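Appendix B. Chain record.
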Amino acid sequence: MTTAQRRGFGRGASTVRDVVRHQFPRPAELSRLIAFRKPVWSATERRLRSALTIDDLRAIAKRRTPKGAFDYADGAAEAELSLGRARQAFRDIEFHPTILRDVSTVDTTREILGGPVALPFGIAPTGFTRLLHTEGEEAGAAAAAAAGIPFALSTVGTTSVERVAEVGAGGRHWFQLYMWTDRDRSMQLVERAANASSGPRFATGTSSRSAATGCTCSEPDFERHERAFRPRLRVGFASPEG
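Structure tokens predicted for this chain:
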């Protein structure tokens, strides 16, 4: 290389400039490579699109839900030891991928309690669901029907079994019964659930006393939900009198 070429003169320098100049694409070429996202005007949809994991959804809910209602849904009984163990059990699950198999068609359907489901899970029964969102069980039942998974309604839910069957038309609806001391009233609930949907009904027994009603029955003992109901926590949430 001559001195002129080292200083940026001569044939060698001209070749370098030509290469650099042609590295910049034309605007027409760029337009095929760059796709701008359409604006999302719904604030709710923007928040949900930004959530990649269940933890992301939990963080969104915590920011937008009153503390008492959030702690009721997010917490568990007493010191929440069982909740911690359950979460750890899920973390310990490992998926072992099968290598060199045909995955052009994947079937996730299963049969649960005598009926088909699109995915091997469902939405569990939750009491007082409308504390968290005005749509409550209606939103859950509709989403479950759209996804092809079961939706279970709790005895202490905030939507009737008839309404759940209506908004979740075509889906599988289960009903969870807390057996009251008034057996006739309990059986009336079971009959309503059977008339509204052909899904399974199952009974749950968790305690002998309900702090919410003050009666001796098999309803959940809300006083054991320490995080949401302890007066000393002052979260603005308390069970009603009488």
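Further analysis of this model is presented in Appendix C.
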